[in-house]
Amino acid sequence: MELKWLEDYLALVDCQNFTTAASIRSSSQPAFSRRIQALEAWLGVELIDRSKKPFRFTPTALEHEATIRALVNQIYQVRNQAQSSSQDRVTLTLAAQHSLLVSSFLPHFLDKLAASIKNLNYRVVSENMDTCAAMFLKGEVDMLIVYETVGAQSAIPNHLSLRKTLGSDEMILVAHPDVMTRCYQGPKKQNLPLLIYPVGSFFGQIVWAEELPRVLRNQNATIACESSFAVGLREMATAATGAAWLPRSIVLQDLTEGNLIQLNGISDPIAMNVVAHITKLNEASPARELRAIF
């Protein structure tokens, strides 16, 4: 059995057409068909019902498609891991808050690391603040990257980590222009709907502590939705569902294009820092090289 037979079969599944699949696989249609037949012969079962036009996949083929696809992926994964081991590549594992994954900070920071550490691979785990911190304290990741404010910092003891501030950001209240028209300029003014975070989440803590009570007190505002995910609240805000507090770094393009506007007169920005914690619990290569850089 040859790996290319499995890849041919998956190309046929994706295209549902022998001619197109053969073209994608840089093969003539007769040669491509022979390879599909060779795979069927090796498996000892028919994958294609050729008695009907257009052809159909047999029940056996449909049943095992996911397994074949997973097998091909696993083969390439094993090859990649073997190549990485032979090239003495360094694998860095880091945990980061969900919102940092879609900001400009993390990609730029990883680019800088790749330029500083030779043969660097990295694995990024995206979770909420508490889960990320717990993974760091258990020694499951080499680095933790999170937002912090003066009043809300991650509970990482100094003796367990080397702390480095990567940059600054701010939490701002934004809304679609249509929301502001409905609430402040239209003939029938409505209450300002607020899209907020649960009070127990990190973003919820800082918004509830610094801005939300004042906005509720001074504006005709109501809480319309609660969600832990900044990216989800951004989607709702751009759909004119309500106003949301979001990190400026993830709405820069929306503000530039006018999809969102900052509500300066209603809420003040909340200053935040993007902070990296490098573990002191692990003396393996990634953590050691990170500490040397910082």
Automatic annotation (TrEMBL):
Keywords: DNA-binding, Transcription, Transcription regulation. The keyword Transcription regulation applies. Residues 1-58 form the HTH lysR-type domain. The keyword Transcription regulation applies. It holds the Pfam family HTH_1. It comes from the Bacteria. PANTHER family: HTH-TYPE TRANSCRIPTIONAL REGULATOR, HTH-TYPE TRANSCRIPTIONAL REGULATOR YJIE. Belongs to the LysR transcriptional regulatory family. This is LysR family transcriptional regulator. It comes from Orrella daihaiensis.
